[in-house]
Every structure is written in C-alpha cells, then in structure tokens.
Amino acid sequence: MRLTYIAKALSIVLGYINIAFIFPIIVAFIYHDYYSLIPFAVTGLIAWFLSMGLKYSVKGTSELENLNDIKKGEALFIVTVSWIMFAIIVAIPYLFYGISPVDALFESVSGITTTGATIITTYDYPQAFFFWRSFAQWLGGLGIIVLFIAILPQFAVAGRQMFFAEAPGPTEDKLTPRIRNTASALWKVYAVLTIICIMLLVIAGMNPFDAVCNSMSTLSAGGFSPNSLSTMGYNSNLITWIMLIFMFFAGTSFNLLYNVIKKRNLLLFFKSEEFKLYFFMVLLMSGLITTALVLNNGYSIFEGITHSLYQVISIATSTGSASVDFVQWDMTAKILLFLVMFMGSCSSSAGGGIKMTRWLLLWRTLKAELVRILHPNAVINVKIDNNNVPADIIRQIVIFIIYYFIIFAVGAVLISMIEQNPTIGLAGSITALGNIGPGFETVTGPMGGFASLHIVSKSIMILWMLVGRLEIIPFMVLLQPDFWNFKDK
C-alpha cells in the first residue's frame, strides 16, 4: 500500500468532515446556546489541523494530484480508517458535556454506524447536542465515503473502489455508468425522503426541531431521538405510522427507490426478489407478533398491528427506535422479535444486518446443492432477478454469514460472562453487530441504555458496531499479516 495515496485520501476526508460542524453551530446560535459553540468549533479546528498534518507530514502527499489508480487494498484501508477517524472526531464534542471518553466513543460509534444504542441517562442537554447526535447518524446512514464521492471531484474516478469497500454487497449493482453519479443519485433520494418526512411530522403535530432530528434518525435507520421515550413519547398514532413508513423506506434499496421514482412505476418494487422477500418477512413477523400481543398481552387489534409492525420494521432495518416498551411483552413476542434481529434489510439501503439478498442467495445455494446430490451431472445456476450470480459472489456470501455468526457468538459469550447475564450478552452482541440498538433487559431496552455496562462490554460493542457497519469482510482482511505492507509511493 502506498502511504501517499492513503494520506491524501484521509486528508481530504478530514478536511471536509470539519464542514459538518457548521450545522450544530448554527443550531446553537438559533437557540442562543453560546456554550455549545465551543465544542463544535474546537472539534472542527481539530479535524482541519489533522487534515493539514496528514497532507504535509507524509512526503509527496501534497504534490499528488489525483487518486485515480488507487488499489483495492488501499481503498479498504482508507474506508476503515476513515470510519475510525470519523468516530473519534464525532465523539469529541460529547466530552465537553461531561461524558467520559469511553461513553463518548460509544455514543459516537453507535450514532455514525446508525446502531442507536445509547449511554445517555438524562436528556437534560441543549438542542445542539441532540441535533449533532441525529445529524451524525444521518451522515453515517449512506456512508461518509459515498457522500464524498458524490460531492468531491477528487474521488470521481478513485471512488469506485472505495464505494464498494464502504458498502460491499452481494452484487456490485450501480445505477449509472459513473460511480459518482450513482453516489449522487442515492444521496438525492436520501435527502428528499428526509425532507418529506420532516414536513409530514410537522403537519402531524411534532415540533420542528424534533421533526428534523427524528427524520434524520429515521431515514438513516439510526433511531436516536431527542425524546427520552423515543417515538412512544409523542403519544400519537399518526406520528408512529409516518415514522413506520419512512423506516420501511430506509430499509429498502435506494437503488430500487431511485429507479421507481425515475420511471414512476411502483410495480418495479415487486419485480425485485429481494424487496418481495423483505416485504413478506415484515408482514409475516408482524402478523405473528400481533397475534401474540392480542392473545397474551391484552392489545387491541389496531394497537397490536401498529406496534408489532413498528417494532418489526425498526429492528429489521436496524433503526432501533420504539413505539412501545417491548421489554414488557410476553416471552413469545420477545422471542419472535429477537429472531427479527437476524433478518436484516435490503442491500444498498441505510439498514444494517445480514441483508435480504444474502439470505435469498444462501437459500437458493443450499437448494441447488441438494439437487446436485441427487443429480450430479445437472447444471444448476443460482439466479436472482433472472440474473446468474457468479460463484465467487456466492462464496463470499457463505463466508460472510459464517463470520457473522462466529463474531456474534464470541461477543455474546464475552458480554454474558462480563455482565453475568446471558440476555444482555445475546442481545448486546447482535444489536451491536447488526447495528440494531436496544436489547431486551430493562436496563438495555428501548427505554433504557447501555451506560451501566462494564467498560469492557462497551469496548466490545464499539468494535462490533464498526465491524457490522463495514460488513465484516474489510475488517477480516485487515487481520491478514500480508495486508500490512506499506511503501512511500
């Protein structure tokens, strides 16, 4: 790997991250919260100085004109380090509000990876603080590198390698011949849906500030809210349904959404096998949980449908917000909701988890192998949307899922032993790795937080959240010794 290319890319990323701090500064001015000017202004300057330091400390970086011939390994490294730097930078303002370094990093990583698990125990913070939590989630929702590819000419060509390094999926599906146009199209859809959600929430009676924060957290599948009781705190079925619908969109492929909008054809949704599976699984799990809520928890049919649908979509899309305290549900409903944590959303969405495409291709691969046992000479192609899936993609999917469950199991065992509580261990590991958010104990549930966990448990969850957001493979590649081979040029 060439240090000049790595330093140049990271310098650009840091140089533009500081622009993000203008927005919480504006919010602080609007609400006459002059103390909050300090943390965001100072952090913005820190990001800028780090950018300049990288640019001029590595020989040849300042003279490097473009990144067009960047290699795949370099792209993986740049994306991973960019996310780590972004997490640290986002955490710095929290320190000014009296949050400890580990807790600040936990809150930061949970935000940018759109996990939504929080260590906040009191909501007695200024508006700029809550805006920053939601805005950081919104930036992380589609990926900071994808954003920079969309707006920066320096990444116009080199962006292809980094685009797929940040958001690897089963297929390298793109909307346009130029990856920069693809990134721009995704962000336009993302931004427009966020604005529409804000307007509808204001019309439904939510105050404008909360509408902005909740919309950013909803479309990013993040879940942070300025309300201590999440969506339940607004006590409105209309608000619940608006957020439910936009969460569902957040878990839908933005590639698909773009094509539906561009071609003005809603039927395109049901030409996608991944979307059909996503839609079917949401309805199936919601139906089962509704039955449990009506029969075992005393809910009316409307309440059961509303809250089961909200929680299934929230967990499946890894949003993690809550319309009700599901910790109080009976064991049947909670077990069903726990299974939803392994479901995932669509590829190329803001949601986390394993992703529907992977489950679909894994199932078809298993079926194909069973047929080959009976008919050894048969030629069987695994397809999705009538397109053959290459063998190397299928192999990557199998490896991904194996690693996913190994990492989940390791985290579950470690956190269970540290906390002496298997429920916290199981839920903590999968909510972190799947970027989901709340657990099933009172202290870690949707109305609680993770502040009381041991510092080691928090550290494991921080790592798991980053690994889950980067979709495991880049992280596993970084563990290979031969990857760490640097040279100046």
From TrEMBL:
GO terms for cellular component: plasma membrane. Pfam families: TrkH (PF02386). InterPro entries: Cat_transpt, TrkH. It is found in: Cell inner membrane. Keywords: Cell inner membrane, Cell membrane, Ion transport, Membrane, Metal-binding, Potassium, Potassium transport, Transmembrane, Transmembrane helix, Transport. K(+) binds at residues 114-115, 222, 319, 435. The chain crosses the membrane at residues 12-31, 37-54, 75-97, 135-157, 185-206, 238-257, 277-295, 335-354, 397-418, 460-479. It is a multi-pass membrane protein. One of its GO terms (molecular function) is metal ion binding. PANTHER family: TRK SYSTEM POTASSIUM UPTAKE PROTEIN TRKG-RELATED. Belongs to the TrkH potassium transport family. This is TrkH family potassium uptake protein. It comes from Candidatus Scatousia excrementipullorum. The lineage of its organism: Bacteria, Candidatus Scatousia.
